[in-house]
Design a protein that fits this description.
The complex is a heterodimer of chains A (about 260) and B (about 160). Chain A is mostly helical. Chain A has ten helices and five strands; from the N terminus they run H-H-H-H-H-H-H-H-E-E-E-E-H-H-E. Chain A has two domains: about 1-135, Cytochrome Bc1 Complex, Chain D, domain 2 (Orthogonal Bundle), CATH 1.10.760; about 150-255, Orthogonal Bundle (Cytochrome Bc1 Complex, Chain D, domain 2), CATH 1.10.760. Chain A has a three-stranded mixed beta sheet with strand order 4-3-5. Chain B has about 160 residues and is mainly α. Classes of the chains: A mainly alpha (about 260), B mainly alpha (about 160).
Chain lengths: ~260, ~160
């Protein structure tokens, strides 16, 4: 197991995240709660969570100037990243001057192209995942809080429709598994409720960090459906739906999943 | 020929689903050529899709297989060497005493014809599917011969 030396005291943040995730009358379960104790410990411990390596890489990318503007993220947003606290909790969102939503990675790439005047980072590239992990990590332990923007409603509705759509050669919908059969066993695997609480996530099966889109593609491949292109609005709409469905749940990124 | 033309239905019990059920009966009663009318009788397809009996040993291997039959994703069954079995669906144990071969055949071919809300995939229906991945497009999950093998295996599961 990769050991990381990161001098961060995360214990209190994790305690908060657990309290939120398991609190009171809320019956929703994060994928975290469906994992065994050893994986939970791996996620909770900043020195054993492999996702923290990407947070550290992200901190370096955050500080490094890029593009024709020769500016770093830190030049506009501050060195520590503390200004990013809460940001990941409210994406996807509609950026200023636009009328369609982008997810967090899309927002990072908007800063790349407009403010840094650099080429967008490719989907699932190490640098994009690292920056997303760095930004997302600032919101760890806080409740997911989608924006109350009425312009999002049609996108949210379309996300909900994709969720309920039977598709693929196996003719299953997301809802079939994650609403109707969550907690049951699909072969040996407990079907989670599919809350997007931990992304980008370190998945043991991938042996690396991956985005929510990559996870959704895995499910689409599983039901033998055509995956959407990485830059398609379908993923943003599904993410909107999933974030709304998880409103108030504790954010855990970078999480660990089997 | 695979059974074609069942309209897809949504995930939940709904008016649409009932419409789908009604439609499939209307299609059967009115528009179907003699060949298909022979296929589905009541809740069964009484005759072999290939005209030949299936092979139970091959059928067992298909049911056990994670990428051919996929049955044990959802079902459990008397296949001890497969440790990871699902619990989304009833056990396959005893299926051969609960159902005739013809009834088993229709359940494998297109379980939606009996329960429009079923999650059981249609193993031998080509039409009415959405957004099928390119490498599976126009193909059924199992071939006619494989369906017969599975039916032959299930028929042996008497208890």
């Amino acid at each position: 197991m990769m050991r990381l030396r990161i001098g961060l005291c995360l214990a209190s943040v994790f305690a908060a995240s657990l309290a939120l995730a398991q609190g009171g009358t809320d019956k929703r379960r994060s994928g975290y709660q469906d994992m065994g104790p050893s994986l939970q410990r791996m996620q909770d411990d900043g020195t054993s969570n492999p996702g923290m390596l990407f947070v550290q890489l992200g901190a370096e990318a955050w500080a490094g100037p890029a593009g024709a503007a020769n500016k770093a993220c830190a030049d506009c947003h501050g060195a520590s990243g503390a200004t990013m606290k809460g940001v990941a909790l409210r994406y996807p969102a509609i950026p200023e001057g636009a009328d369609t939503p982008v997810d967090l990675e899309g927002r990072i790439n908007l800063c790349r192209t407009t403010n840094q005047q650099a080429a967008p980072l490719p989907a699932e590239s190490r640098e994009l995942l690292a920056l997303a992990a760095f930004v997302a990590h600032q919101s760890r332990g806080q409740p997911i809080a989608p924006p109350d923007d009425p312009r999002l409603a049609p996108f949210l509705d379309r996300g909900a429709a994709i969720w309920a759509l039977r598709q693929g050669q196996l003719n299953l919908s997301c809802a079939t598994c994650h609403d109707d059969n969550a907690g049951k066993k699909l072969a040996g695997v407990t079907i989670p409720e599919a809350h997007p609480t931990g992304y980008p996530v370190y998945r043991l099966e991938w042996q690396t960090l991956g985005s929510l889109k990559r996870r959704l593609r895995n499910c689409l491949v599983g039901i033998r459906a055509e995956s959407y292109a990485y830059d398609s609005m379908e993923y943003v709409m599904l993410e909107l739906f999933l974030m709304e469905r998880a409103r108030g749940m504790a954010f855990e990124a970078p999480a660990v999943r089997p | 020929m695979p059974i074609v033309g069942s309209a897809p239905s949504p995930a939940r019990p709904s008016a649409d689903a009932m419409w789908h059920l009604a439609l499939s009966f209307v299609v059967l009663a009115l528009a179907v050529p003699a060949a298909r009318a022979q296929q589905v009788v009541g809740d069964a397809i009484p005759t072999s899709l290939t005209g030949q009996p299936g092979d139970a040993a091959r059928g067992r291997a298909i049911v056990a297989s994670r990428n051919l039959g996929l049955c044990l994703l959802c079902h459990s069954g008397p296949i001890a060497e497969e440790r990871f079995q699902g619990n989304l669906a009833p056990s396959l144990a005893g299926a051969g005493s609960r159902w005739s071969e013809g009834q088993l055949r229709l359940r494998i071919v297109d379980a939606m014809r009996l329960n429009p809300d079923t999650i059981m995939p249609p193993y031998y229906r080509a039409g009415g599917l959405r957004r099928v991945a390119r490498n599976f497009e126009g193909k059924t999950i199992l071939s006619a011969g494989q369906v017969e093998d599975v039916v032959a295996y299930l028929a042996t599961l008497k208890d």
